[in-house]
Amino acid sequence: MRGATAAVREAAERAFAASDPEALGRVAEDLFALAALLDREPRLRRALTDPAVPADSRGTLLSGVVGDRVARGATALVAEAIELQRMDDRELVDVVDSLAAQASLAEAERAGELERVEDELFWFAKVYEQGRDLRIAMIDPGVPGEAKRRVVEDLVAGKVSPRTARLLGLLLDRGHARDLDRTLEGLVGLAAERRGAVVAEVRTAVALDATRRERLAAALAGAVGRPVELHEVLDPGVVGSLTVRVGDEVFDGSVRRQLELARERFGTA
Question: Is the CATH number of domain 113-195 1.10.10?
Answer without folding.
Answer: no
